[in-house]
Every structure is written in C-alpha cells, then in structure tokens.
Amino acid sequence: MARRMIALALAVALAMSHATSALAAEVVVTGDDGVAVVLAAPARRIVSLYAGHSENIVALGGGHALVGVAEGDDPDLFPGLPRLPIRVDAERILALEPDLLLIRPFAESVNEGVLRTLSQGGVPVLSLSPPLPATMESYLDRLSTVTGAGDGAAAWRRALNDLENQVSPRRRPRVFLETSGKGLRTCSPDSWAAMLISLAGGENAAADAVPLREGSSIAPWGEERLLELAERGLDFYVVQAGPMNQVAMDDVLARPWISGLRGARVVVIEEEEISRPSLLRMERTVRRLRTLFEGERLAEGDEAR
C-alpha cells in the first residue's frame, strides 16, 4: 500500500512538473489590436506581411524563421523567399505552413476574409503597428518574445545610446523632410524620420508640425509654410522617394516654387531608408545623413577661412 502511494505521489509530481514546463514554454504576446496570441513555443515558421517586421526580426537574429515576406521587402535581404502582396490569398500563406503570421493594422483592413480563413486554419495572427521611437522598445521586446530571438529592448537601448553619443555639438543644419509632394507633407515631430535627422546632427525645421492623426508619422505642411521656413534659413530639403511619394530629382527640381528654397540643398533618399522603423537600417541611415550634414559644416568652415 505504502509503495503504491509513493508511486502515485511520484506520478503526480512528474505530471505537475511536465505541466509547469509546458506553461513555462508557452509564449503569449498581445498585438496592437488588443488580441493576445498564444504559442506553444517561439515561432519557427513566420510569414511577415510588413517589411519593417521582417527587417527587425533579422536585426534580432531571427531571420532563419522567416518563410515568407512582403513584396516591399528588400529582395537582396531575402533571396529565394516567397514575396507576398499586401492583399494576399489565404492558400498561398497556408501552403507555407506558418506557425505565425505577422501583419500591421493596414493589412487587417484589406484582408478580413483571408485572416478569418487563416484563423480557422489554425494560423495565429499577430498585428503590430509600425513603431514610433517612443514605442520601439516595447515593439522589439514583443518581437523577441514571439521569435525567441535576442533581447530586442536591450538591442534598441544600446543602438540608440551609441548613436546619441556620436552627435556633433556643432551647429545643427536646418532640415525639411518631404514625405509626400501631394499637399506637401512632412514627418511628425515624434516620427522615426525626425529621430534619424536628429541623431545625424540635423535640426528638423518643421518640429512644430501636427500629425495627421494621433500616432501618425505624417504631418501636413504646405508650400506657403515651406517658403516661410526657407526665408528664415533652410540648409537641406530632403525628399523621400517611394510608394508614398513617387518622385525623382528631376520632378522635384521642376516644381515652380523650388527657387524659393533659397539655395537649400535638395536631396532625394529612399523611403525605406528614412521612414521605415528598422533597427537593421538605423545606423546606416544615420551615418549617411551625418556625412551629408557634416559636408555642409565643412563647406561653411572652408568659407570662413
């Protein structure tokens, strides 16, 4: 009898140990839509429908888990991986046998039926908004948790601290960023682009811009206000080129008001470099902008001599 009781106690203890281990391995992450995603373990087959998610996973060391990426992803970064459009077919995703689908809120609005089919097919869907600098740490922490890759929060703090310590104490050149020529929009003061300009040693000339809506990285500005800025002094007119602003340098220089910039240097930069919240690109873009801005300071020094 005593032996049976001891055996039973050991069996119960072993079962509880296994249950505790299973609970410890369980991954729970809440998306920006308020939906909690529960995984038995960190995801090993991820489909990402937003290039920013894909790049940040790579930056954290989890790129091997990606089995499908967005059309907007850099093809050189993901050679051979299927590239999926924003309006995607459920069957294409299911064929990749993912254990997690990563999206952003915009993809939810255009893929309601698809997401419902995937949910019924047992594919967990995690919706994360493209982060602002203020939310980047939390965003990367959730990516780390769901992928089991790196310490995203620590990586962010380290990268940000390193770049902040490199900012030159000299005069900051005044910079205006055009995010869209339609209605002439700029970046919001708390946006990723505004942060990169600051880390590169520039001054956002439109620091008082008001976002289109709460949390938006885009802000309306207008040509009249731009020319007023130029009258007070503007060193660089940076134009992002990409899906949101499909322009080339010739298009910008042909604008009837361009002479009103009063000698500000016009620069075109890829949208993904300046506006995509990407830990993978951050240092490279800051160094690129810093080289541009420091060249301006060097020219000023030459003139002073």
Architecture overview:
This protein has 305 residues and is an alpha/beta fold. It has two domains: 26-158, Nitrogenase molybdenum iron protein domain (Rossmann fold, 3-Layer(aba) Sandwich); 170-304, Rossmann fold. It contains twelve helices and 13 strands. It has a five-stranded parallel β-sheet, with helices on both faces. A four-stranded parallel β-sheet has the order 10-8-12-13. Helix 2 (51-59) links the parallel strand 3 and strand 4. Helix 6 (136-147) packs antiparallel against helix 7 (152-164). Mean pLDDT is 89; it is low at 5-24 and 298-305.
Helix/strand order, N-terminal first:
HEEEHEEHEHHEHHEEHEEHEHEHH
Reading off the top of the CATH hierarchy, the class of the largest domain is best stated as Alpha Beta
Count of discrete domains: 2
Tally of helical segments: 12
